[in-house]
Design goal:
This protein has a three-stranded antiparallel beta sheet with strand order 3-5-4. Helices cover 69% and strands 3% of the residues. The longest helix has 22 residues. Among the domains are: 119 residues, no CATH class; 64 residues, no CATH class; 101 residues, Serine Threonine Protein Phosphatase 5, Tetratricopeptide repeat (Alpha Horseshoe), CATH 1.25.40. The two termini are 58 Å apart. The chain is elongated, with a radius of gyration of 31 Å. By secondary structure, it is mostly helical. The protein has 36 helices and five strands. Helix 27 runs parallel beside helix 29.
């Protein structure tokens, strides 16, 4: 991408930013430039802020796809990804989505990988109408013999020599190429190496010592390398390096690239990864460690204004220097703090790029490399945040960070408290979660406005609203909205407007839906993943409070289109569950059943599964499948009890009572209503919800002769 834009590794931040802005402005309409540039900045090493997580990664992927799509709109474009068997899962997901989601433009995506990619990700790249996989079979003996003859410029080899050669080549054309090069360099070689790696090693061994040293140091730099880095690592003049590289190019070990990504330096590439691996593999461990340390020293000497772009590379070399040094019995004490810091910086870059899994690995490496940073509260905060997002864990790290930062950085401590509280909340223990939210709110109460404070206040407002503390939630939401406007933070303004809208509706203010719609508009203008929440909540309000089921279904469908373009899998499950319910009430039972069963079949537990069981129970009951309906309502009630959210628990218990009454189970219906009454009593104002289940409640009470409870207001549910 940097090469396409014209950004050189040697460019300053201002030069790179200017080139990026010009390229984006030239590719997309004005309305998309700010969004696209914001997501390309971290990718080309210009930094950027990030909330991390699946949502941000999906949004970033959407922007990257838009970049390639815009190139294709301008002219036929070919994008090549090599050696994808080495790629991280995030990159594999992006490439897979690029092929699937970009359509209607002349864009050809070519990927090369070894077979082990499909062992790791068996379904990768499959099941697409516009994708083709080509497996390269080994050459036949006849084809291999013809290739060797062409390469050696000799039509015939001795029969016994050719038989051995064909057997050892095994149909691999690279073996034939490397054998030809070896024969040219050492024509008197009597024994043919057994393997391709052996042929490569024999060629390297035939080099002069100075050439071999240069090739090995180049292998430490990577498959692609530059003359300035190689010269600095070896302590040589660039002209001397250039002369030796010319010899290695003539011997077909490396190849000079036509364009260089570094100004005033030449760029070379190994002719094949196996040649690079062969040169690297011949180095003793101690020599490898020293070579990585020299490369790291060179990287550290480069201008610091784009150090973030080199963070991962620096971390790789320093960590390798430590690992190989330890394996060789070398004292690496001085390298440990540098390697730990480099891993941490690389983790920050991965987080910014929306790759929390990679960030977590790097943060953990940082802590393991240097035990002295194990108590650093900011590393603990980063590590806890990544563990929370990836594993639903991180309590220990977040608790230690909050305690350590309480006096020195209360905003950061509050952020840790909020995440700690959310971990507890997600486990279904709302009561235990609120002390964390209360401490977070108190920590930032007297602080000046900042994005960190805004995040904390907006999140506490959201959880208060979910718990039914609507007045307190509204007060904090108002504060957060004012702060977001003062800070000109449209992203979090969208988020907190959504919260305020929901709370206002729960308090009986019909105009609260204006806030939810405005929240969605802002998120869509920003092309933010937060628009998914807007679609979900707007649809819920239209369905549950306004009774406009048709408009709610249309909102969910539009939201599904949005999240599928963006690739936000978690939000998709919320929308599917809600659409299943709307389809049920619209009489689209086949669609409702298909949506519900698809969600129920997902092996990963989710909040929406209890709602989908309720949907399926209604359809089964209407179609005469009474055992199936009863099974569904029992499972739904069980799951809703675990969730303890009134939005799940009250409808689930009501449907359980309704199904029991409809099937003649008077005792079961009465027990379900008693449990519902008890739950409502415990929930208090939090149970003030509305929805179609209110009709089922009235029906159940009437059928059981308990209409006096309804008229007396014992079940005070929904808007008054």
């Amino acid at each position: 991408m940097k090469a396409q834009i014209g950004i050189l590794e040697s460019d300053s931040v201002s030069e790179a930013a200017t080139k990026l802005a010009a390229a984006v402005a030239d590719l997309v309409p004005d309305v998309e430039t700010a969004w696209l540039e914001r997501h390309l900045r971290p990718l080309v090493g210009l930094g950027g802020e990030s909330d991390g997580g699946e949502g941000l990664q999906a949004e970033a992927f959407s922007a990257w796809r838009r970049f390639f799509e815009a190139l294709g709109e301008r002219s036929p474009t070919v994008v090549v990804f090599e050696d994808l068997h080495w790629a991280e899962d995030g990159l594999l997901d992006f490439v897979d989505g690029l092929v699937e989601r970009v359509a209607g433009v002349p864009l050809l995506v070519v990927c090369s990988a070894r077979p082990e990619l499909l062992e790791r990700r068996p379904g990768w790249g499959g099941g697409k109408r516009n994708a083709y996989s080509i497996s390269l079979a080994p050459l036949s003996n006849e084809e291999t013999a013809r290739l060797i003859a062409i390469l050696l410029d000799r039509p015939v080899l001795a029969a016994d020599q050719q038989a051995v050669l064909l057997q050892r080549a095994g149909g691999n054309p690279l073996y034939a190429e490397e054998y030809a090069r070896m024969s040219e360099a050492t024509p008197m070689l009597e024994e043919v190496p057994d393997t391709l790696q052996g042929v490569v090693a024999a060629r390297i061994d035939a080099l002069a010592p100075a050439e071999k040293e240069l090739l090995q140091q180049a292998s430490v730099l990577g498959k692609v390398f530059w003359t300035d880095g190689l010269a600095a690592s070896l302590g040589l003049d660039e002209w001397d390096v250039d002369e030796r590289l010319h010899t290695l190019e003539r011997k077909e070990f490396v190849r000079r690239e036509r364009r260089s990504a570094v100004a005033d330096a030449k760029q070379y590439v190994f002719v094949h990864a196996l040649v690079r691996d062969g040169a690297y593999g011949q180095m003793p461990r101690a020599a490898r460690g020293q070579a990585h340390a020299r490369v790291a020293e060179w990287i550290g000497s480069l201008p610091s204004d784009r150090a973030e772009d080199r963070a991962e590379m620096l971390a790789h070399h320093l960590i390798a220097a430590v690992e190989y040094g330890r394996a060789a019995g070398v004292d690496v004490t001085e390298l440990l703090p540098k390697a730990a810091q480099a891993a941490r910086d690389a983790g920050d870059r991965a987080w910014t790029l929306g790759a929390p899994g990679s960030a977590l690995t790097l943060y953990e490496q940082s802590r393991s490399l240097d035990p002295n940073v194990g108590d650093d509260p900011y590393l603990l905060l980063r590590l806890g945040r990544a563990r929370f997002l990836m594993l639903g864990e991180g309590e220990e790290e977040l608790e230690r960070a909050a305690r350590a930062l309480e006096e020195s950085d209360p905003a950061a401590a509050a952020e840790a408290e909020v995440m700690r509280g959310e971990i507890v909340w997600q486990r279904g223990d709302q009561d235990s979660a609120f002390p964390y939210f209360e401490r977070a709110s108190a920590s930032v109460a007297k602080l000046a406005p900042s994005r960190q404070k805004l995040y904390v206040v907006s999140q506490v407002a959201r959880f208060l609203g979910l718990a039914g503390s609507h007045s307190e939630s509204l007060e904090l939401a108002e504060q957060a909205i004012t702060m977001a406007q003062d800070l000109n933070d449209e992203e979090l303004l969208s988020d907190v407007l959504n919260t305020r809208g929901i709370v206002r509706r729960a308090l009986g203010e019909a105009d609260g839906i204006v806030d939810i719609k405005r929240s969605l508009e802002i998120a869509l203008e920003l092309k933010s993943y937060r628009a998914a929440r807007g679609y979900i909540n707007l649809g819920s309000e239209l369905h549950g409070f306004d009774g406009d089921v048709m408009e709610a279904a249309a909102t969910y469908r539009e939201g599904l289109g949005f999240v599928e373009r963006l690739g936000v899998g978690l939000s998709r499950r919320w929308l599917v569950g809600n659409l299943a319910e709307s389809s049920l009430h619209l009489g689209l039972w086949d669609e409702a059943m298909a949506l519900a069963e698809g969600e129920i079949a997902d092996p990963s537990p989710h909040y929406m599964q209890q709602l989908c069981r309720i949907v399926r129970a209604h359809i089964r009951l209407a179609r005469g499948d009474i055992p199936g309906a009863i099974e569904d309502v029992e499972r739904a009630a069980e799951e809703a009890r675990a969730i303890r959210d009134p939005q799940a628990l009250v409808p689930a218990l009501t449907t359980r009572a309704f199904c029991a009454v409809r099937t003649g189970d008077v005792a079961g219906g009465a027990a379900a209503l008693d449990e519902l009454a008890s739950a409502v009593g415990e929930l208090g104002p939090a149970a003030g919800l509305a929805g179609s289940w209110v009709v089922e409640l009235a029906f159940s009470l009437l059928e059981l002769g308990r209409e006096s409870e309804l008229s007396a207001g014992k079940h005070q549910l929904g808007p008054q």
